[in-house]
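REVIEWER CHECKLIST
Item 1: Sequence provided? yes
Item 2: Single chain? yes
Item 3: Sequence as submitted:
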Amino acid sequence: MPELPEVQTTVNGINDNLPGLKILDVWTDYKSAHAMHKESIKNPKYFLKFKKEITGTKIIKAERRAKNILIHLSNRKTVLIHMKMTGHLMYGKYMLDKKSKTWKTTEKGPLEDPFNQFIHLVFTLNNKKHLVFSDVRKFAKVVLIDSSNLSRSPHLSHLGPEPLEKSFTASVLRQRLLLKPNGKIKQVLMEQTVIAGIGNIYSDEILFASGIHPLTQVKKLKPTDFKNIWKYTKKILKEGIDFKGDSLSDYRNIDGERGGFQYRHKAYRQTGKLCSKKDGGTIKRIVVGGRSGHFCPVHQKLR
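Item 4: Structure as written out by the authors:
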């Protein structure tokens, strides 16, 4: 699932290319029997309302909240997109094949990547280009919210603080983690109500750098552990953004290009490799709360 750096990379791409453009039309083939009574574009009735309200509006800017993309429009509405497991937005020239009812890029280059061909949502823009959403597993969430009600929206109101904000100090991190004193540190780091935006990839990398076993209970952490987690949370998330996200799996930026953070993994999916700290350890994989955890048993000892 795209995490904070991937979502921020997408938001940066939108802000570099789309502000001021008008939405002329919206298309989707999302449809789910499970969404028939929900506020979701997978509900055909909701999508008709969604399309009516945003057609003719201009894109003002995009922001990120946790793992959500927020696209603010000129009618004081905000399109919220959660990319879930396999979704990513792209920007370019596309054409609908009426026979197959699929959208294909008319440009040569990264947009032709096989991972970019599962297009289920298309915004037609007034510069003859499109903002499209590729989502092979069709898990994504797309809703429309009044911009004035964002913080109170049930999609956002439960979220913890943003780890890259200046106000997110080491003291705040400690207070947040201790909300779950009996929890395993990897799971608590990924809990969006505790801290927003961290998932499987970056929790592994943060704990590797901090020298903390992913199964360690929060209440067993020392003051220096909290400081290290805070330091490496800031550092590694910023690196993820600098390298334009992690594309070990499906994620691509709005140009259809891969990010580069996957080449900097020290722990995540490095099972069987020698620890980069040269401590004699070999990276191991365990299951933590149903998710994979990767760590070095030498410098990340369980307490």
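Item 5: Key structural point noted by reviewer: The radius of gyration is 20 Å.
Item 6: Recommendation: ____
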